Amino acid sequence: MRSVTYSMSVSLDGYVVGPDGGFDWTVPDEEVFRFATDEVREAGVHLLGRRLYETMLYWETVNQNPSLDFSTLEFAAVWRSLPKVVFSTTLSAVEGNARLASGGLAEEIERLRAEPGGGNIAIGGAGLAAEAAASGLIDEYRARVYPVLVGGGVPFFPRHGRRVDLELVETRIFSSRIVYFRYRVVR
Hints:
Elements (H helix, E strand, L loop, with lengths): L3 E8 L3 E3 L12 H13 E7 H7 L1 H4 L8 H12 L2 E4 L10 E3 L4 H10 L5 E5 L1 H9 L5 E7 L7 E2 L10 E8 L5 E7 L2
Parallel strand pairs: 1-6, 1-7, 3-4, 3-6, 4-5
Antiparallel strand pairs: 2-8, 7-10, 9-10
């Protein structure tokens, strides 16, 4: 059965976006960017909320800029080919290798888990991840922790009022002082 993974960059104080809506502190260096590319390569499908989908639209056309380096072009190619499911009540159409969700989050995840095929089910966007976590649907939490305190904003970890025990599976410290933690939910 395919695992549901939630992976994002996060400040040391636990936020994916600062109080001003900014996330400029998450710009990765080459080492972290390659790591993130490999992580996306592991996914079989990516679930996104509307805001993250709109942010990631950049990667659908970035390859048209001839001055980009190999890593940027590689990530763009991996991202464009990855199937995506967008959860939105306001969008009527999506671009690229994406489709609008036809059901609720739990229903979509159940259907995707039952489908044959490899790769995990990646989930992106704090709001969508919070909904999945509240329903006990996330199997792994993956955090790239940046050495910055932003003081508030959108939290990485959802506030759903229930305890979730985790098992540390992997850690990595990058030369840029970013620390990666991968935790599996203990069931």
